[in-house]
Write a structure and sequence with these properties.
By secondary structure, this protein is an alpha+beta fold. Helix content is about 25%, strand content about 30%. The chain is built from 9 helices and 19 strands. A 6-stranded antiparallel sheet has the order 6-5-8-9-10-11, with helices on one face. The radius of gyration is 23 Å and the shape is globular.
Length: about 400
Amino acid sequence: MAASAGHQCSFPSCNQRTVGPGPSTEYVSNSGYAAHIYAASGGGPRGQGGLSSEELKAAGNGIWLCGRHAKLIDNNRGTTYPPEVLLSYKALHEARVLLEHEGLYPPIGWLHEFTVVQGPIFSGQQTFQLAKLNLIYGRNETGKTALAEWIMGFFDPNPMERWTPVWGTDLNVRMKVLNPKLQNLSMTVRNSKLSYSIDGRAVPFIPIGFRIIKPSRLMLSGNDDLKLLASCIGVSELVMNGLLAEVNSFPHATVSNLRFEYEHGDDEEITKQRLLIADVQGTAPGLSLRALSGRERERIVLELATAAARLSGRYCPTLLILDEAISIVFEGFFDFYSPHLLNPMNQFQTLMCIPERKLDLNNVKWNGWQVIRMKGESPQVSISQDIRSEGE
């Protein structure tokens, strides 16, 4: 674990070296700690999450920290730093070490905490922490999309247009960002005016380079797949072939050999319509986009969006938002996609919104997701990071 962490503390913005020269040349001084994420004993901080004894002992259940932060995460039985947050810290840090080892030094940025101070839909002040993988989970009309739009609104005012009518309810939200030091951002909508502040100082916009990738739902309209997918992912048509090449070169992708081919007309003449052809795991190779099932098409959208976020995350802080783009959450969805999204090469955060359904939230958390649960009905919705249902 120490080597994977580059012998540095994995706590965001710390990066303290934990190894160095000892009192003489034949000694080395080591001040690091291999801290458990899920507790080694039944009564330990953060519980054991249903893990076996072998899983509890595995390196995947440990995070390398300096002495100060090893003690900090276990205070108050670890409630401030739940397992999914520590898994995110570990993934973020190891991704940074991997990139530095390859000679790349991207800026570090991390959305850490979000607070609704005042606003429509929600009852009173609501706060939740953000991890590497975040699932906003609840019934329809409980503010899942609103939270995604407000997070986006800190870096792009366009999603806030529908929240700024003259008759609208005042909105006041805050977000803590590690950039790499902790910065407190505020966004307010009052009297149809949008305003921001950083650490209490008013600014006309948030000048922090944070990129949002938010694919839309794939609608099979028109006949040109290149135009269709560029619009869905939110990129220029000019870069789509490069994005396909990024997916094809990623060793952990679940689709491969993506390419555009010109369609042939009835008289076998080549038309100007471009078809996407792909090999999707679990089905026949070389099928066109329109010959695939809805679930398989969504896999292609997710791979393209992930590729865009991966490229962006190498050079600037990035958030991938999966709201309307994923509508088919099949059995085993989180087991299938979580290792892919947690891969150290994917140095970005993910925020996914899905309606409430039969779902094993313990399994979702074990797969590294921070569950942000919406409870109640508008305008009295509350936000909880307790995965239990009301009344349980």
